């Protein structure tokens, strides 16, 4: 609700002394400066009071009678001391717990987003390497001759039958990171399944992964191997 | 799990639809039981009857909504797998977004965009959690094969027919 108040009028609310005294300034100057809200001043008054001041209880809307203004200020001052320290501590504790819960939620959500972005967009993620290798397989003439035109690729089958996880292993050799992937391809002719093995090596200058070899093991008898790329 | 000799995809739709219905019906059943119990007149018989009525009326509705969501999501997912030819987290995120958009189609284009965003973000979070879990589970078993040399299929390419 404070967001809907608009910056200019909110400044005026904040500058005026708290809560109840706003009644006088609000209705007095509301018509000339905050034209938009002429329709709903009582609602906004209450909303502003509840959002700006944290004084609980006792803030019923009082019509600002000219001679009762002093009285209303006095009475409100007394009411403020009635909101005792214990209640304030309890409210502060509650606000603090909510704040911690919100922080934890944001942290978890942020972590999950980071994981999924890294997986989908970073060039050193197994998924990206799998995508590039699959494209190379699809455009290789020998693979097309064995499997047909449209080649599907998939990874390991998790529960529920979804096959999104590509099995990969990372290891370090001679100080450089290597990664090996294994996924399966299938063509339009049924019964022919192939296993694609990919290895990539990290290039120390650019920091990206470069392909070291790609080959396809075809599931026929006798077993055939098609080497797509060999940069050793 | 190589016991699956059949393609997961068309059967997965039925699987997901039924699974979603069960989740919605059971969850809705528990929720409505408590709600019906509390919103009934005093007396255990009244309350039990009230909660049973609430379950009978509301739980299948919730189950149905969940089933529609799950079935539509799985249908779009399988269609995308068929179209793209590979299985990716992108499929899930796009399917979630399209499902959200289609299910909000009655409320106009702006609502569709908002619902699509929510569906996509929800699915992205679920995918992220899934990836985290798989990575975490795979690091539990640190004894991979020692991979210091290249596989034998590569060695002398002219003899690649041998194994």
From TrEMBL, chain A:
Transmembrane segments annotated in the record for this chain: 96-117
Signal peptide start-end: 1-21
Entry superkingdom: Eukaryota
Membrane topology value: Single-pass membrane protein
Record carries keyword Flavoprotein: no
One CC-aspect GO term: TIM23 mitochondrial import inner membrane translocase complex
Cross-referenced InterPro entries: Tim21 (IPR013261), Tim21_IMS_sf (IPR038552)
Subcellular location: Mitochondrion inner membrane; Mitochondrion membrane
UniProt keyword annotations, A-Z: Membrane, Mitochondrion, Mitochondrion inner membrane, Protein transport, Signal, Transit peptide, Translocation, Transmembrane, Transmembrane helix, Transport
Record keyword Phosphoprotein present: no
Coiled coil segments of this chain: none
Pfam family name, one: TIM21
GO terms under biological process: protein import into mitochondrial matrix
Broad class of where this protein is predominantly found: mitochondrion
Protein role: Essential component of the TIM23 complex, a complex that mediates the translocation of transit peptide-containing proteins across the mitochondrial inner membrane.
Family: Belongs to the TIM21 family.
Assembly and binders: Component of the TIM23 complex.
Identification of the protein by name: Mitochondrial import inner membrane translocase subunit Tim21
Species whose genome carries this gene: Ptilonorhynchus violaceus
Recorded name of the encoding gene: Timm21
Automatic annotation (TrEMBL), chain B:
Residue ranges with Polar residues bias: 142-153
Topology term for the membrane: Multi-pass membrane protein
GO process annotations (BP): protein import into mitochondrial matrix
InterPro entries recorded: Tim17 (IPR005678)
Presence of keyword tRNA-binding: no
Biased composition (Pro residues): 154-163
Subcellular location: Mitochondrion inner membrane
Entry GO CC: TIM23 mitochondrial import inner membrane translocase complex
One Pfam assignment: Tim17
Subunit details: Component of the TIM23 complex, at least composed of TIM23, TIM17, TIM50 and TIM21.
Family as reported in the entry's similarity comment: Belongs to the Tim17/Tim22/Tim23 family.
Name recorded for this polypeptide: Mitochondrial import inner membrane translocase subunit TIM17
Taxonomic lineage of the native organism: Eukaryota, Metazoa, Chordata, Craniata, Vertebrata
């Amino acid at each position: 609700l404070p967001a809907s108040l608009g910056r200019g009028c909110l400044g005026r609310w904040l500058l005026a002394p708290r809560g109840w005294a706003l009644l006088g300034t609000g209705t007095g100057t509301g018509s000339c400066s905050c034209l938009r809200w002429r329709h709903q001043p009582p609602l906004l008054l209450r909303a502003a009071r509840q959002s700006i001041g944290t004084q609980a209880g006792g803030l019923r809307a009082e019509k600002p009678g000219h001679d009762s203004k002093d009285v209303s200020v006095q009475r409100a001052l007394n009411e403020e001391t009635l909101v005792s320290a214990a209640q304030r501590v309890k409210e502060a504790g509650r606000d603090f717990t909510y704040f911690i819960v919100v922080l934890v939620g944001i942290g978890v959500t942020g972590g999950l987003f980071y994981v999924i972005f890294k997986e989908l967009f970073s060039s050193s993620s197994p998924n990206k390497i799998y995508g590039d290798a699959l494209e190379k397989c699809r455009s290789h003439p020998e693979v097309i001759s064995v499997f047909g035109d449209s080649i599907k690729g998939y990874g390991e089958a998790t529960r529920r039958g979804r096959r999104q996880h590509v099995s990969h292993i990372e290891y370090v050799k001679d100080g450089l990171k290597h990664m090996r992937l294994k996924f399966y391809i299938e063509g339009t002719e049924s019964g022919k399944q192939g296993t694609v093995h990919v290895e990539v090596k990290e290039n120390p200058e650019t920091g990206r992964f470069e392909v070291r070899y790609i080959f396809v093991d075809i599931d026929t008898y006798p077993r055939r191997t098609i080497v797509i790329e060999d940069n050793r | 799990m190589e016991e699956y000799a059949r393609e997961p995809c068309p059967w997965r739709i039925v699987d997901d639809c039924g699974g979603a219905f069960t989740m919605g019906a059971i969850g809705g059943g528990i929720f409505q039981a408590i709600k019906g119990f509390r919103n009934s007149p005093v007396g255990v018989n009244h309350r039990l009857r009230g909660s049973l009525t609430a379950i009978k009326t509301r739980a299948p509705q919730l189950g149905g909504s969940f089933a529609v969501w799950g079935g539509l999501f799985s249908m779009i997912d399988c269609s995308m797998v068929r179209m793209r030819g590979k299985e990716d987290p992108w499929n899930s995120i796009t399917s979630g977004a399209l499902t959200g958009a289609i299910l909000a189609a009655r409320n106009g284009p702006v609502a569709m965009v908002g619902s699509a965003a929510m569906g996509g973000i929800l699915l992205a979070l679920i995918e992220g959690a899934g990836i985290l879990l798989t990575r975490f589970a795979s690091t539990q078993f640190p004894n991979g094969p020692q991979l210091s040399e290249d596989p034998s299929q590569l060695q002398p390419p002219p003899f690649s027919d041998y194994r």
